[in-house]
Amino acid sequence: MFGTARTEIDEQWAWADYGNCQELPDLFYNSEDEAKSLRRRKESAAKKLCGRCPVIAQCRAHALAGRELYGVWGGMTEAERHRLAGRARTG
Ligand code: SF4
To answer: Which atom, in ligand 1's list, is nearest to the CA of 71?
Structure first.
């Protein structure tokens, strides 16, 4: 029947259901016009939640493999992921 079978994409994202950020998505992303001081405070708070997250390893692996450009993923900020990948920060 429709809607009962888990797709391959569902399986790939199953870890995300257990993330500490499920209820706080705004904390993990920044808008372009956000002040740098606010961005730093949000990133710091998000990284603290990541540090206690049961799926941090899966999240970080996903973000690095998928080259996620924006937001905090797996305890890493945009800038940290870009530096690791040798890319310039976009925002
Ligand atoms: S590691 Fe951080 S961004 Fe990833 S699921 Fe957990 S809380 Fe969310």
So the answer is: 3
Give the angle subtended at the CA of 53 by the CAs of 15 and 81, to the nearest 5°.
Answer: 80
Q: Provide the pLDDT for residue 19.
A: 97
Residue 78 pLDDT grade (very low, low, confident, very high; cuts 50, 70, 90): very high
Is the distance from the beta carbon of residue 76 to the nearest atom of ligand 1 less than 6 Å?
A: no
Q: What is the pLDDT of residue 10?
A: 86
- Say if ligand 1 is within 6 A of residue 63 CB: no
**Quick check: CB of 74 below 6 Å from ligand 1?**
yes
> Is the pLDDT at 84 greater than 60, yes or no?
yes
Output phi, psi for 76, to 5 deg: -120, 135
